[in-house]
Amino acid sequence: MKRQFAFLLCSIIVLPVFAQSDVYLCIDANGNKEYKNTGSTARCKKVDLPPMTTLPAPAKSAAPASRSTPSAPPDFPRVDDSVQKARDNERRQILQDELRKEEKKLADIRGEYNNGQPERLGSERNYAKYQERTATLKDNLARTEKNVEALKRELNNLK
Predict the structure, then answer these.
(1) Total domain count, the chain
(2) Based on the domain organization, do 43 and 97 belong to the same domain?
(3) Is-above-0.85 flag for pTM?
(4) Which residues form the DUF4124 domain (predicted)?
(5) 80, 86 contact by CB (below 8 A)
(6) Per residue in 46-96, pLDDT tens?
């Protein structure tokens, strides 16, 4: 019963196209309830439903909306062009410094990684420790390469 009522309720809410037709509750010989849009048998009763509320779509304005950037409110703080250029130059310098550090780190990791065959350390008597360090170096190498790529992309976006 609850499932059928929930279905009826969902049908009314989700499918407003069919909400204008009559709904009948029919009970068959076994006592099963069924909702139909026709009441062709004597065991069907019309279900009184509240009227459907519909809203028209908003009308489109005749003038096309401009694609320009919205103007800032008059009390919005402004930055002087020379101050903004200084900030941009500072940002570029910070990104270049960070890129140099990451490139140095990448070269160091590549040298230690040695194309997947790093030299074994004296503390790595157990081969599993060596494999663990090799896997860590590989992860660090991949992460550092991604960092270098991201920094280069960011610098290219500034130009």
Answers:
(1) 2
(2) no
(3) no
(4) 13-63
(5) no
(6) 888 887 788 888 888 766 655 666 777 888 888 899 999 999 999 999 999
